[in-house]
Amino acid sequence: MNVSVNVNGQQREDDVEPRLLLVHYLRDVLGLTGTNVGCDTSSCGACSVHLDGEAVKSCTVLAVMADGRSVTTIEGLAPSADEMHPMQRAFQENHGLQCGFCTPGMVMAATSLLREIPDPTEQQVREGLEGNLCRCTGYHNIVQAVLAAAKSGGAQ
Amino acid sequence: MIPAPFEYVRATSIDEALGALAEHGDEAKLIAGGHSLLPLMKLRLATPSVLIDIGRIAELSYIREEGDEIRVGGLTRHHDVEHSPVLRAGCGLLSHVAGFVGDPQVRHRGTIGGSLAHGDPASDLPAAVVALGGSLVLRGPGGDRVVAAGDFFEGFLETALAPDEILAEVRVPKTPGAAWSYQKFVKRAQDWAIVGAAVVRNGHTGVALVNMGSTPIRATAVEAALASGASAAEAAAHADEGTSPSSDLNASEDYRRHLAHVLVRRGLEEAGA
Fold first, then answer.
1. Is the pLDDT of residue A80 over 80?
2. Residue A55 per-residue DSSP state
3. Strand B158-159 to B179-185 pairing
4. Topology of domain B58-173, per CATH?
5. Residue A92 pLDDT class (50, 70, 90 cuts)
6. Inter-chain residue contact B1 with A19, CB threshold 8 Å
7. Per-residue pLDDT tens for B36-60?
8. CA distances from residue A147 to A74, B61, B273 in whole angstroms, order as listed
9. Nearest CA in chain A to B42
């Protein structure tokens, strides 16, 4: 089945099997391997991307469901190749990652959260990231990073 | 994990969806947000040969007041139920409980109709709709029929929805002055309830239990005790009557019975019973 998806600002046209998951379309067809497959059961959030601007778990969306819609992955977040998005910069400055596997999903979930709640409390950040698991950090610095990003344009 | 192959049909109206259901019979499954069905398909516990995508039928996504009811279109996403000013003002329990389904990413995709039609006794919204005394509009080739929420859930993942019907609308009574509570016991924030309890007090007190049997269960013994003047603690002691909780990795049957007592008491107390 033919799908037409705007991915990170570029219009993509591909013939895909209906059973192809969005995360496999992004990684295996388009080569955008920044989006990780973690649990593959919509629990861990590592595969989070934006679908029409809202965070979703791309392991639980079919590529055909994204037809005619726009998808943003971690590769499409930064304004240019040599400038990080404010959320990425905040994760770096606040040591919001260790192994980094959960980070693309965390960053995409966090930017989606700030679009809904631009100036969240710590509690709102913790609840807003309940769909993303991190095995390294204990979450503290991730929460600090999101709070810092809220003060520096992270909702953009 | 990759689902088994299937034929994909995208319906853009209710009539198209009903036509596709009539054509393909019980070989077909409807998919909206996909957050109940796709995980089953990835595990190959569900292998529909035709998938009818109703996720783009805009006419089934709405929240509106109608007389003494609030009517929610079957394709309304949990995110929209959670944040609806109409529901927050007129039926706070339903929007509150929608905020407990999965996590924000799941709530951006999953729909109230999908959650109810899936019929999982561990999910949050079925018990809320049962406690509220809501009803469901099932649309089929012969028109609409309205089923009380308490009669809709027939068994584990089994409901009164026929293979040629769509769950078109959820109706809940307006309860603007009601006190309510939702108690959910989980190990991780995003998980299914190990046990849960939904309480709403609006003159009469409605109590429904999550994951205490093969369907959401109305705690009628608790309601009867309250009606005859029992305290919250006395009434909550009846919480597991008539239930048949399972034992699994998360909890034994006895522990679930204990949780039902504790959660119902907390719910009644929070709702001021």
1. yes
2. E
3. unpaired
4. 3.30.465
5. very high
6. no
7. 999 999 999 999 999 999 999 999 9
8. 19, 33, 39
9. A41
CATH of A2-75, one of 1.10.10.60, 3.60.40.10, 3.10.20.30, 3.30.1330.60: 3.10.20.30
Q: Does B53 touch chain A (CB under 8 A)?
A: yes
pTM attached to this predicted model = 0.96
Residue type, B195: V
Whole-number Å distance between alpha carbons of B193 and A51: 28
| Chain A residues with CB-CB distance to B2 below 8 A | 19, 21, 24
Q: What is the pLDDT of residues B123-137, one digit of tens each?
A: 999 999 999 999 999
Indicate the residue of A41, A109, A127 with minimum beta-carbon distance to B105: A109
Question: What Cα–Cα distance (Å) separates residue A79 from each residue in A17, A65, A153?
Answer: 32, 27, 12
Please list every residue in chain B whose beta carbon sits closer than 8 Å to the beta carbon of residue A24: 2
Residue B118 has pLDDT above 90, yes or no: yes
Locate the chain B residue with the closest alpha carbon to A49: B105
Q: By C-alpha distance, which of B1, B109, B55, B20 is closest to A19?
A: B1
Query: CA dihedral defined by B58, B64, B70, B73, rounded to 10 degrees?
Result: 0
Chain B residues in contact with A57 by the CB 8 A cut-off are 105-106, 109
* A55 with B104: Cβ contact below 8 A: yes
Report the percent of chain A where pLDDT is more than 70. Answer: 99
B190 touches chain A (CB under 8 A): yes
Pick the CATH number of B7-53 from 3.40.50.460, 1.10.340.30, 3.30.43.10, 1.10.10.10: 3.30.43.10
- Residues with Cβ within 8 Å of residue A151, at least 6 apart in sequence: none
Does pLDDT of A154 surpass 80?
no
pLDDT digit string, tens, across residues A12-46: 999 999 999 999 999 999 999 999 999 999 999 99
| HEC readout, B258-272 | HHHHHHHHHHHHHCC
Specify the fold of A86-150: DNA polymerase; domain 1 (1.10.150)
Question: Do A86-150 and A2-75 fall under one CATH topology?
Answer: no
